[in-house]
Amino acid sequence: MMKAVRVTEEWQRAGVHYVRTQAMCLGFKIPLEGEFSDDTPEDEYILVMDGIYPVSTCRLHYLDEHTGKIERVATLESYRGKHYGQAGIIEAENWMREKGVTKIYINSRKAALGFYEKLGYAADFSQVSGSGEFECVMTEKELA
Q1: pTM higher than 0.85 for the full model?
Q2: By the number of CB atoms within 10 A of the CB, which of 9, 47, 95, 138 ranks highest?
Q3: How many CA atoms lie within 13 A of 106 on its CB side?
Q4: Which tens digits make up the pLDDT trace of 90-107?
């Protein structure tokens, strides 16, 4: 059973770290320090569970009172394409909307751009960063 939760407990944060370590450090060979160096104890996360197993996550960041950014989106490889990542993004949008956010940005790897476009995000090709597998395009979405 799929369930997206707003992380409030330490065990849920451990699930976030597990997913990011598996998906990003092991999956994409990102050093552990690089993946977690800008995290803070105050960060907010969504954790998507498949029953008792953590399988997807994202971090919420606020640029100002009406603008947010969804970051560090990660889904275990065997769960990609099964709507777990989508569930996390939707719950992050709902949480941000409740806090007054009306516009959200996501910096997407080019390879994942179609995923975000299906969720209503528009690519801004004037904002491209990175290279290779991590060439990214900034996307944005206005919340209704």
Answers
A1: yes
A2: 47
A3: 27
A4: 999 999 999 999 999 999
